[in-house]
Structures are given as structure tokens and as C-alpha cells.
Prior knowledge:
The complex is a heterodimer.
Chain A: H1 9-15, E1 18-19, E2 22-26, E3 29-33, E4 42-47, E5 53-62, E6 65-70, E7 83-90, E8 92-94, E9 103-104, E10 122-124, E11 135-136, E12 141-143, H2 147-150, E13 155-156, E14 163-165, H3 171-181, E15 183-184, E16 192-200, H4 202-214, E17 221-227, H5 234-252, E18 256-262, H6 264-278, E19 282-284, E20 287-288, H7 291-299, E21 304-305, E22 311-319, H8 328-336, E23 339-343, H9 345-349, E24 356-363, H10 366-369, H11 379-403, H12 410-427, H13 437-448, H14 461-467
Parallel strand pairs in A: 9-17, 14-22, 14-23, 16-17, 16-18, 18-22
Antiparallel strand pairs in A: 1-7, 2-3, 3-6, 4-5, 4-7, 5-6, 8-10, 11-21, 12-13, 12-15, 19-20, 23-24
Chain B: H1 2-7, E1 11-18, E2 21-25, E3 33-37, E4 42-50, E5 53-58, E6 70-77, E7 79-82, E8 90-92, H2 98-105, E9 123-128, E10 137-139, E11 143-148, E12 154-158, E13 164-170, E14 174-177, E15 183-186, E16 192-195, E17 199-202, E18 211-213, H3 224-229, E19 237-241, H4 248-258, E20 263-269, H5 273-282, E21 299-304, H6 310-329, E22 333-339, H7 341-354, E23 359-361, E24 364-365, H8 368-376, E25 380-383, E26 389-398, H9 408-416, E27 419-420, H10 425-429, E28 442-443, H11 446-456, H12 461-485, H13 492-509, H14 523-545, H15 550-554, H16 557-568, H17 574-604
Parallel strand pairs in B: 8-21, 19-26, 19-27, 20-21, 20-22, 22-26
Antiparallel strand pairs in B: 1-2, 1-6, 2-5, 3-4, 3-6, 4-5, 7-17, 9-11, 9-14, 10-13, 11-12, 13-15, 15-16, 18-25, 23-24, 25-26, 27-28
Helix pairs in contact in B: 6-7, 8-9, 12-13, 12-14, 13-14, 13-16, 14-16, 14-17
Bound molecules: adenosine-5'-triphosphate (ATP) and magnesium ion.
Amino acid sequence: MYGSIEPNEDHCIMSIKEYRTAIEARGGLLVVRDTPGVAFGDRVRIENHAGQIRNGQVIRAADEEVLILVFEGTDDLDLENTWVRFLDEPVEIALSPEILGRELNGLGEPRDGRPPVLSGLRRPVGGSAINPAARTYPREFIQTGVSTIDGLNSLVRGQKLPIFSGSGLPHNRLAAQIVRQARLVDENSSFSIVFAAMGVSYADAKFFRDEFANSGVLRNVVMFVNLADDPPVERLTLPRAALTAAEYLAYDLDRHVLVVLTDMTNYAEALREVATAKGDVPARKGYPGYLYSDLAELYERCGRIHDRRGSITMMPVVSMPSDDITHPIPDLTGYITEGQIVLSRELHNRGIYPPVHISPSLSRLMKDGIGKDDTREDHPRVAAQLYSLYARAQETRNLASIIGADELSERDRRFLEFADAFDSRFVTQGEDEERSVIETLELAWALMAHFPRDQLTRLQETDFARHLPHDDRP
Amino acid sequence: MDDAVKDANRTGRVRDINGPIVTIELPGARSGEQVKLGELGLLGEVISLRGGDAIVQTYESTDGLRPGEPVRGLGRPLSVELGPGLLGGIFDGVQRPLEAIALASGDHIRRGIDLNALDRAREWRFTPNPALEPGARIGGGTLLGTVPETATIEHRVLVPPGIEGELEEIAPAGDYDLEATIARVRDAHGASRRLGLYHRWPVRQPRPYRRRDDGVAPLITGQRVIDTFFPQLKGSKGAVPGPFGAGKTVVQQQIARWSNADIVIYVGCGERGNELVDVLETFPQLDDPYTGRKLMERTLLVANTSNMPVVAREASVYVGLTMAEYYRDMGYDVVMLADSTSRWAEALREVSGRLGQMPVEEGYPAYLASRLAALYERAGRVETFAGASGSVTLIGAVSPPGGDFSEPVTSHTKDIVETFWALSKELADARHYPSIDWVGSFSGHVHTAAEWWHQEIDPNWEQRRTAALALLARDAELSRIVNLVGPEALSDPQRWELEGAALIKEGVLQQSALDDIDTFCSPAKQFALLDLAIEIYRSGESLIRLGVPVSELQNLPLLAKMRRIKSLYSSEELDRIQGFRDEVEEAMEGVRIEYSKLDRGAGVE
Ligand SMILES: Nc1ncnc2c1ncn2[C@@H]1O[C@H](COP(=O)(O)OP(=O)(O)OP(=O)(O)O)[C@@H](O)[C@H]1O
Ligand SMILES: [Mg+2]
């Protein structure tokens, strides 16, 4: 499927015709007439009256005319004097080990003032579906050092686990902390990082750049960046370019790759913008019906493949418009990814970092990545028990807010104390605090020790014997 | 078939490529006909004709396709190969064998790849039907012979529907590949026709049967909230709606693992690749609780994952159903799981949108409801042409946007199905699994199922089930009061009702798919647990009536044990559960004696 082409620019230019038959430009779309045999999905170069170059892609190809998506937008195009050149190749990026340490745009062009990545190896950014029969189920536990993740929503190598957040919540700090700390328990190999920023602010991009530099991982990072004031349409190719780079690092160079995509909401908004311009039938909130498939095309590029040493783990950041988890972007993301880490404004306002709300958070791949041979034998039951205590504690909190904590029974008060201890000791941790999974589990036991055993019905006798802190045994 | 060959060489050209929708010029194209597009030979299907043009939906990505490229009409509708070798396999949405494709084209699916669904090189041991002699009248459904497809499944080689005549010859016992002739039949016009071990069938055409029958037996899934509370019959249609992460896939995979069906067809329709891998990697290790053989021997997978072309998603459900009907026709009970029918509906929407059809609700075309109904209608228990009884049970997951059950796909589905297992986000967030909500769910089969339970397990089944549901309903009422005025407002009997409901929830309804012991629960164990929970509640109730304070009962260790017992003892250890029941009786009796002593003491003073 992937091919490399000879980078013989001169030859290409000579054989490729230019057309000045554009008849319509609107919302990032350009219609060009009388263009025989242009391939669907091919790359286009557009030169405006002033000689400036834009890039585009054929999104509908018919006998009479083609429709082009212009990545830099169609503002200021003088149709009479617009030259369109069909490059006869798909949208591709150049790949070599030298991409590490670079900062590129959505088309793989440098943004760091350094020369373009030179390589005979170019691959189409669109990728193609992994054959499910070629996949291997992800099972290797990644320790992120964050208790709410490692203990209750464990991440495994090859998983796609998004952070659902809201404006002003510390998702960037959490993502950066995970990037810094993520490792396999018994291996020292660290991750290569592919960082894809879509429509983020200058400050956020700088935050990550500085983070990578300060923690000394910059050599191991390739950044794809499109800022808030860069053309939105470019956000559509950017994650694809980033994932193409990730696939190269994982499957050609045998690296374990962690991909951070931020912010998927900006991506989806760009998609809606283009869809609206194309006149696609909207499904919910104006987003096109194919938003699900489009997002899946990105998210499903992660995973593990038989006989391949490398892997792709993905952590997309999705900010939920108005903190609404049922908004189409987080909703469709949740339907595709293998769980989600949900940040809560309420916890954040109470000064808790990281403000991970465990009830709606979930890791679906946890089950095969934890337990006896992976973390510790009691881990699955401890997680189930903590969840069940926490659910009950939440009910008690609600009750206390109605009738007052003083009215609570002895039993209920214990749950209330647990809820507070859970938030302040288990959830809360420093931005530089890296807890081993064993430390996380010990912490869990310390919290559970305040309950009589007959309330800990998810645990087994052997667990008590082995792990219950001695002095607290009721 | 011969028609197809005659037509097969018509050619034309591509005119317009709009994503998966391609307009072509192809003289004589018919609606529903399969076509191959371009140099790569991308597979597509004509969905409508407009003037001289045919509109094609393409099952593969059209990247790189150009106007002017050649087109070839295949002269036949989308159809599947039916014969031995399907079981244990994984196929894509148009029945291409994914394992063979992985060998041929590596990690990614090469476009235009064209491999037979069934392995032509493999030989099968055929034993002819001893009752058949040349000269016999045969017709659709006549048993020609059998092939051991897997250790558990005998593949019954039947005359395909629509063929009738006089048997000219039948092959002797021996090893045959799929292209071999195993019988010849002379039809009414005197034409002789060869029959092999496989045939093709168009996926959008339901396979015929002699008669439709009512369902009689419940599909036992080993999941308490399903079997005991919202039972489904073999041959019926059910749905599992729920927001993301609520547990639809786990419910379906549990049914695939533990149900007492003969054949399981699992269709991953627009869902995650890893979920199919999970089945592929674990089923060959797991034992079927009924036959003791490996689960994969009775299972086949159809995979159109969310990143695979959208249009093939629409086809994948029909591909699965056609294979399900094929095994039904052999007299088997087949369960087909479709995860998720919402993705199927979205594929319809995608195509209709590209065709510029008028959307009615949330972008869906007006024919959504009728297509959905027709799809579920292919489920059923039937009498086959061979006189056997076979069934297709269809269970579809539904993924409502935002978890909103009033959206079109969920609401239409709800009108069609007989069993509705509504998953709740609140329960899932509280890690109450399976998060099937006893308020929003329904089963139209409780009475029929009751007959089975009463006969096979215990005559008190329906009564106990009703008692449990009544407790849960009281729990909801009382919890409302507690949330208004606090628990102090409740009387002792009311508090005990809450305790009883908690036992039902935690000791009976909750069932972790990840628990080695509790992942499967036999009907007898299901009843034992239910009966025990009700028994504890009732004896406590009578003690409270005697004046025993509820706190006395709440401190009994047996309440904790009741919550754990499901994962302490397996379905084979019912005697241990009985042992616990004796303990319960003893403990309750102890409380009664203790209390009546106190009481009498008080009376003397
Ligand atoms: N019966 C169960 N026992 C234990 N865990 C369960 C059970 N049901 C669901 N879960 C947990 O919930 C998670 C999500 O379940 P599942 O993948 O079935 O959700 P879903 O409804 O199919 O979501 P989606 O629509 O996104 O596919 C599982 O990974 C598992 O952790
Ligand atoms: Mg699912």
C-alpha cells in the first residue's frame, strides 16, 4: 500500500499541467472545470495572482469538474488569476529518523525554521485500515505514576485513552505529566512522542515545547503544530500526518510511540466547517453524519500488530463544550476509544490536582493489563472495591448535603470520611509526584482499612491476609 | 448463476467520484448488481440508476480513482459463499476472509484484493445420506450428506433452496474439496445440474423456510439479569441500547461465550478492532460449558471495524444474517450479535446523504424504520424444508448519541424488538455490571420462559422473580423518601426492605464478566441465589415483625456472605450454596431464639 516515489521535482513540474479554470471558491473549497482524469484524494498546488502557493486535496472528481479542499483556505483568491496544478500524488509526508526533534505543520513542512525533512520515503497521510486479524490485543501495563489512572483506569500499550476536559481545566498539565512519567514497569525503554496540536493557543504550544525541553525528551519528540490563528482546514490533515509519522516510528523503527492529540474539539470544528461548505447533511449540532467514521479513522490507527516490535498508544485531549459529555465530540470519541479519563470542574474548583473524576472515567483494556503477572494479584479486586465504596460514598455525600452530616448514621459517616480521604490522598498528587503502582495500591489499602471487612465484599480472604495494614485490622 | 456468467463481461467507465459514492456508465447495469471499479478493481454495488448512469456504493476506499477508469459489471448481486469452513473464521463486511488477507497483504487490507471466502484447497470428509438413492425426488432442504465441520458441528449439506428434481447421482463417502461435484440433479426441464459442498446466496434476500414457529425455549446466557429477569427466547429479537462504556459489547460477548446456542455469529459493525481481536484470541482457549469443546469451533466473526469503509458496514449485517440463516436451515439454533446496529444505520444515512435524499430525523432517511424492521424480521424460529426446527436469535447493540433513547434508531428499535435490555449510565458509573436497568428494560417472553423454568428448575421461579422486582420497586420509592428527609424517617420494616433490595442488586443482579467463577451462572445456580436472597429477606421480615430491631439483622455476617456467594461457589457447587442456606436458617433461628428469650425476660419483669 505504501509506496515511495522518486523525489524528482523537475520531472514532475514538466509533465504536470496547470489549469486556470477555477469557477467557484467558497469556505475553503475550490471548483475547477475541464480537468481530465484527476484522481480522487490527490494533492493539488494552487498559485494565486500574487504567486503565493497554497495546498489542496481533491475531494470530488468528476468528468466535468473537480472539487478541491484548500488547506490554507480560499480567502483572497482571484479566480481569473488562480493557477491550479494537480500533482498526481496523494497527500504525503516525508519520513526519516530525522523527524524526531522537529516541529512541522499539518503537511509535514517545517515550522522550526530548519530545512525540510529530506527523504526518499514518503507516505500518504490517509493511511489504511489495519486488518483486525493482524492485530494483537494490548496487554502491557503502562505506569503513568498517576494513582487515579494506574490504580483505577490503567493504560496499556496500544490503547487509545482520551482525556475529556473543559476549558480552563489542567488537561495540558496532566498530559505533560503522563508524557514525562509513562513507562513500563519492568523496562527502561521510554516512549517516542508524537505531539499533534490543532488550533491550540501559542501559550499552550509553548507550554509543551518547554515541557519537552525541560524534561530532556525533546530529541524523542516530533511536534505537528497548527495554532489557533493558522488555517483551520490544515487541522484536517494534521493528525493524519502525525499518525503517519507515528506509524513510521512504531513499525519501521520499532519504537513504542505515545501520540498526544490536542485538541480534538478544534479538529472536529474544522471538519464541521468544511462539511457545511460542502453542503453535507448535518446529523447533530451541525456536525456531519460521518464525524464518527472520520474520528475512528484517526483513533483506530493506534494499537498493536502481530510480529511488530513497536506500538502506538494514543492520548487525545477532548475539551467538552460547556462541560457536556453528551456533546457529539466527546460522545463519539467515547464510542470509539477504549475508555476515557474525565476531568471535573468541581474537583478543580476544590483545588484538587489532577481533578480526575473516577465515576465516568473508564479503561476498557485494564482487565488484561493488571493483576498477578502485570501489576499485583489483588489489583483488579482493589479497583472494583474502591469504585464500589466511592459510588456509595457519593450517595452519602448527596444525602449529607440534604439532611446534614450530623444526621448520618455511624456507617454512613464512615463513607463520608472515606470520600474526603479518597479525594485528598488518593486523587490528589503533585505534578511531579510519580507514584509506583504498588504505592498506589498500598494507598488504596490504607483507605479501605477503615471499613469493617464485611463491607469489603469485592475483596477475598487472601487479600486481607496479605495486604491489610496490620495495625488497622478491625 | 449461468446468467451471471453471461453478463459478466460488460464494461463501462467511471464518471464521478464522491467519496464512497461513484457514478458510472455501465450499459445494462441492474440495481443491486456488483461491480468492480478502476484498475484496482474496487468492489461496489449499484444502488440506483439515473438516466444512463448507475450510482455505486463502494466497499473500499476510492482514493486515487479517476474519472475515465474502466468498470466491470459482475452480473450478480452481493452474495456470500455458504459451505463448510465458515466456522472459526473472521470475514470482513463483504465476506472476504481476513486471515487469508493478512497472509496475502500484510497488516493492512490491500484494496481490490479478491479472495474466496471459503478455502478451495481444503478437503472435507463427506458422508452421503444413506436414505438417498439415485432416482429420489429431492428439493431445497433435502439432506445430501454430512461433513464434520468442527468437532462439535456437523455440517449438513442440503440441496440449496429453489432447486428441485430427480437425483441422478450422489458421491460416495470420501474427501472432497469445495469444487468437487457431490450430487447431480435433473430438473423438470430435463437439465442436469451439479451440486457441490457450497453455494452462493444473495445477502439481501432472506433464505426461505417451510413455516415460522413461535419461540418455546429461552436462550440461556448464564447471565442472571437476562435469564432470570429479562429472558429472551431462541428465535426472537432483542436489543441492548446504552451510552458508550455502559457494557453493550460485554453483554454481547458474554452471550457469545456462554449462551446455549449451537452457532454464534458475532458481527462487529463499525466498532473497535481490538474487540474482535479479544474474541479471536480468547475464544480458542475457552471451553463451551455445554459441549466442553473450544468456543471458537462454534463461532464465526464478521468484522467491519469503525475505520473500515462505511458502506461495507451496511452490508456486514446482511452478510452475517445470511450465514446465520444458512446454519438455521441445518436445524441449528443460531445467535447473531450485531455490535452496533447504530453504525449500520449511520451507514444508511451516509449513503442517503451522498445521494441527496431528503433526511427526515437527525439526517436519517425516511426508510430507516422499515429497513430496521425488515432486518430484525430475519430472526425467528422456523421449521426448515427438511422438517427440522432451527432458529436465528438476533441481538443488536444500539449506541444512541449522548445516551438519549429518544433518538431515531433506539426508538424505532424499541418498537420492533421483543426484549430490550436498557443499559444505564448511572449503574455503569457506579460499576453495577451488567448495567441493565430493571426499570427501563422489558421482555415479552416472561410467561413462555416461566414454563421452561418451572419445568426444568423450580415451580417457584416466576413467584420469586416477581418478589424480587417488587422489592426493587419499593427500594426506588423508599430511596426517594430518604433523599428528601433522611433515613431516620424510615421504619424498621422499610429499612429492611432497602437491605433486601441491596441483596438482590449486589448478590443477584450484579455479575462481573471478569470474575472467573461468576462469569457464567447456570439456571439452577441463578435460581438458588435468587431464592436465597428472597429467603433472607422474608425470614428477616418476620423477625422484625416479632420486634427484632433492624440493626440486629444488619450486623449479621451472612449479609456480606450473600453478596459474595456468587463468586465463591461455581454452578457445580450447588451443595455449598445449600450449605450456606442452612447456615442462614440457623443464624435467623438463632436471632429468633435470642430475641424471644429477651422478650420473655422483659415480660417477667
Ligand atoms: N458485566 C460486566 N462485568 C465487568 N465489567 C463490565 C461488565 N460490563 C461492562 N463492564 C466494564 O465496562 C466497560 C465497557 O463496556 P463495553 O465495552 O461493553 O461498553 P459499550 O457499551 O460496548 O461501549 P461502546 O458503545 O463505547 O462500545 C468494559 O470494558 C468493562 O470494564
Ligand atoms: Mg461496545
